[in-house]
Amino acid sequence: MSSVSRKTIAWAAGAALVVGGGATGIVLATGGSGQSTPSHAGSTAIARAAAAKPVAPLRLVSVSPATDAKDVIGTEDVTVTYNQPLPATAPMPAISPALAGAWELTGNTAVFTPATGLPEDTSFKVTVPGLGAGATRTSSTTSFKTAAYSTLRLQEILSQLGYLPLTWTPAAGAASPGASAAAQLSAAYSPPAGTFGWKSGYPSSLHEQWAQGKPNTLDTGAVAGFEADHNLTPNGIASPAVWTALLTAAAGDQQDTHGYSYAIASESLPETLTIWHNGTKVFSSAANTGIGVAPTAHGTFFVYLKLPFQIMSGTNPDGSHYADPVQWVSYFDGGEAVHYFPRGSYGWPQSLGCVELPYTAAAEAYPYLPYGTLVTVTP
């Protein structure tokens, strides 16, 4: 039998002390050749020591859009990036205000895709649940705000759908968004280049009120007309509900069926009301405007309410009360309206602010004054 040398014994004793002082020490066995090898128990201990290497804790790396970002384009997804894949059982981030859409885990990211994009001019918060353990398990919140839709794009859509007395043509190489809802939304933030052109036949007083790319009176009237056609209150304000309907209408090419009208009530004697429709002068009649103590306001307004018949009531200048039956009523400024009222003559100031017409003329004018029609009252 071969014996173990003092050198080998000394080496084994030292190794046992280094590994753990004998508690999990390496046990040596000697073979016939005199060479020593680790036992199975020693190999297992080494493997366990390697497996005990700490795993990096899950942590948040970034959120996009970045915190405090402004004018974010609403076609973007919300992306939360971690330092490693998020466990399937981990809670997903939350977005407020709540949005329809879905989260998807891809690699180290959680991506939220809104069902219909992010609404304009809205502040959002993204809350990422705590990723630590115990006292370190705290959530993280970031915020951003979307941009407002483009006034230029509003004008492009209203022109394309026939609610403005202009045409719009995309520039060479600039594609119109067409039937794609996603492309229409993207264009609402970043409108395609193009040119506007006036439809012929309208007076200069209408041209003077147009401002490309800037809010103006023509826009207000056109929005009111669109609202009336889509069961929205015709107030002329391009609200989120109006934009949602506009983008749908643009994708579906839902044209205005009323045609474009414009009216001028002139206080030059004899007073008249004149209406242009689709670029043609279609109506002119003697009219009455307000008397000195109850004048008709000068300016341009849009038709916001229409009634074929009404009992119009109020207070006369002398304090007495009136309740008069009137017909073919088109309100354009507060309580002022174009309508029929029986008078012995027409063409000079007699009303309490309204634009009065003879019966036959009022009936003829009524369909040419659809919701959103601009009415200009001039001295």
Tell me the helix content: 10-25%
Low-confidence stretches: 1-38
Taken from the alpha-carbon principal axes, the silhouette is elongated
Q: State the end-to-end distance.
A: 131 Å
Strand order of the largest sheet: 15-14-13-21-16
Look at the helices and sheets and give the structural class.
Answer: alpha+beta
Kindly state the number of beta strands.
21
Describe it for me?
The protein has 379 residues and is α+β, with helices and mostly antiparallel strands. Helices cover 22% and strands 31% of the residues. It contains 8 helices and 21 strands. The protein has helices at residues 6-19, 40-51, 151-160, 181-189, 204-207, 217-229, 240-252, 359-365; strands at 28-30, 36-38, 60-64, 69-72, 78-82, 94-96, 101-106, 109-114, 123-128, 140-146, 166-170, 194-198, 261-266, 272-277, 280-286, 299-302, 305-315, 321-333, 336-340, 355-357, 374-378. The strands form 6 sheets. Strands 15-14-13-21-16 form a 5-stranded mixed beta sheet, sandwiched between helices. It has a 4-stranded antiparallel beta sheet with strand order 3-5-8-7, with no helix packed on it. The protein has a 4-stranded mixed beta sheet with strand order 4-10-9-6, with no helix packed on it. A hairpin with a 2-residue loop joins strand 7 and strand 8. Helix 3 crosses helix 7 (240-252) and helix 4 (181-189) crosses helix 7. The longest helix is centred in the first third of the chain and has 14 residues, at 6-19. The N and C termini lie far apart (131 Å). 30% of the residues are buried.
